[in-house]
Specification:
The protein has one domain. The chain contains twelve helices and no strands. The longest helix is centred in the last third of the chain and has 28 residues. It is globular, with a radius of gyration of 18 Å. The two termini are 26 Å apart.
Length: 306
Amino acid sequence: MAGDAAGAVGAHDHLDRSAVLLVVLLCATWGFYQVSVKVAVEGISPVLQAGLRSAGSCALLMLWARARRIPLFDRDGSLWWGLGAGLLFALEFMLIYWGLSYTYASRSVLFVYMAPFVVALGAHWLIPGERMNVAKAAGLAAAFCGIALAFADGLRLAEGEEWIGDLMCLGGAIAWGATTVLIKGSPLVRARAEKILFYQLAVSALALPPLSLAMGEPGIVAATPLVLGALAFQIVVVAFASYLAWFWLMRSYPAAHLSAFTFLTPVFAVLAGILLLGEPLTPAVVAALALVALGIWLVNRPRLYS
């Protein structure tokens, strides 16, 4: 997931039209991400799929860094912290991909996007100057109510296993939030965004395929054009191009103004699941989506308006 890099002071003090269009496009891309995982899981086991995604994106990132002469292997005191971030990243995507084999894409995003609230709580206790304020507390309360509503709705679904996937995706959100707190509170905060992403992709690419084998996953069972296309979308568009675009935005524009738009991601994800996968839309999911989106906006809104 994007947003793990610390935002530098941007070259612009506000978002222009191009930046707004790009950040909305990125949110739409991340919203369609869960759908691509659901499509690919029909032919590639979930944990192996997460590992293949990381391996492919890591290879592209290394080529990009080589072309741009960005050092990825210099000694800067971040190695052990980077390995820790990579292990949390691997845990995050193992849980999310595995969870999506049980629950709907349109539901999973509600749980995955509890990550900003994990960050807000962790930063309050562990990072100086990142104290909880009234707006963040209100956002946390709104999101918690939304998640409780979505989880209760999952328990009533006929299939009976959605709650398992919901809990896994919530675990992935906790791992994502912990990764961000680790980065913000360690020497990684001074590292280049590309190097932080490299740590995460490289460690998960090495860890997840053997884990998939140990779990007894069947692996690649149907390498259809649709399945391979969905995996390619994850590798090229999501974990490589969209993350680099987000990091560029974070370096060029105010991070708080950009982060306020991330409430759009769960909206796009729910719409994508309904329109592309024919997933059910219940009143409880609509209410939960509204509460979670409101919570994300309150937690990330620019301080100018606090």
